[in-house]
Fold:
Amino acid sequence: MSRITVLGIGVLGSQIAYHAAYKDFDVVAYDIDDAAVDRGRARLELLSEQYVHEVEGAGAGARKALGRVALTSDLADAVASADLVIEAAPEQLAIKRDLFARVGAMAPAHTVFATNTSTIPPSALMKSTGRPERFLALHFANLLWRHNIAEVMGTAETDPDVYTSVVRFASALGMVPVEIKKEKPGYLLNSLLIPLIKAAGELLTDEIADPSAVDDVWRIGTGASYGPFEMLDIIGLTTAHHIASHGDAKQREFARLIKERYLDKGNLGVATGEGFHVYPRTPLGT
Amino acid sequence: MSRITVLGIGVLGSQIAYHAAYKDFDVVAYDIDDAAVDRGRARLELLSEQYVHEVEGAGAGARKALGRVALTSDLADAVASADLVIEAAPEQLAIKRDLFARVGAMAPAHTVFATNTSTIPPSALMKSTGRPERFLALHFANLLWRHNIAEVMGTAETDPDVYTSVVRFASALGMVPVEIKKEKPGYLLNSLLIPLIKAAGELLTDEIADPSAVDDVWRIGTGASYGPFEMLDIIGLTTAHHIASHGDAKQREFARLIKERYLDKGNLGVATGEGFHVYPRTPLGT
Structure:
């Protein structure tokens, strides 16, 4: 796989496209119209500057990578010679289905199709391409040059050779490929993170302990860099609220607490300098 | 509080007694007979050597600390002038109740009583002393000089001043005091750890992913030092099996897997060099 097409040049799509180019792949980045493409180009340029500062040894390579990304709003052009198409479109079933139906009709026979969806089971999308055996989920984390994991999740219909080729691609991209053997909502990271966050939320809503106590215990007791409330401050309390408000009664109580104590005061987490904690923060335990 | 009495000189009791002496408290360490006291003395001497190697700046102070621990198998002597009694006896309700009843009858009026129990709610012990308002739980982690948290948990009857004095004592001991405002089984650490371990166990029993994939995701995705299976290997698979076998149907399935794949082969975790992983281990993601 050497020719990669990324559909959607938003926050994560731009990171995938840029990083693939940085790792010497030929990349086509597609978005729906010229305005979206222009916004995508600006994102890629910002990433190039960010790599110079944050990625060891990036230097001139960070600038050069930009030259390996072709941008277009023409979908047929975008996928004409794609070995791998990675979809990073908005998280709506209808949009993704429509997009996969169109690229399925246009792409060469050998193309592999991957969705970066966080919340839609890949089996709900696999038939749209008309080639379910060449379809799977390839899920990146935000700030992928730092959190370099790529969760690879097939469906019951994914061809094992296709699966293996995508695992190999993820490695070539400098990601640690995480193989998920069966379809699992939330992949691995959220399957682990959500029960922890849920337990932490209950300690707060039940007035057992405050966020500092919980975070101190977690860091010192397990050797973690962050406690659960610090993680939520990093993820952002808007997202934390969104997840909790879709949970059970206890979690919805936690969602209300997040809204009343933090969101309504404009405290959204690290991004605004305050959430469960005030930042920058010197934890007690260090 | 300057005179501390520790009841039980086992694994954790010896750490509490030694560390309090190392931090300049006058310590009495009690155990039930001369043989138990001798074993306790040997533990304290080993700790003194361990501090020289592991605790920065310990040096001669590590040896000196031994001189501040008086050992005895006479309970009346042990508590005669105690400001704080910390119970670290075997984890059996009858033993602890009997012990608190006896020290409650012998100790001075100003004595504060603390249990280091991991699993018994302090309210089940508070009446034994005859002074429930002077009773609470003070829970240390194993290897307390490294994992320096002390969870402080009162009951509905604990006097707030007593609670505050124990929080202050924990700080003076160099612990990060973690204040738990209401009685909560499992304190904070296990309240957080068990849901995470449970979720990880399900990913394995449901054949979604193997331990390496789960641990890679957790470390890289959250910045933790260890993934959940690495934590279990550190805790030890005998303990992991014990906890899981007391859980719901899913957890009992995980307990069976631990027994069949690991315990029955003598692989108990880091202690035996192999558990979910083989040690020493170089994680993929680093």
Remarks:
- The first strand of chain B starts at residue 3 and ends at 7.
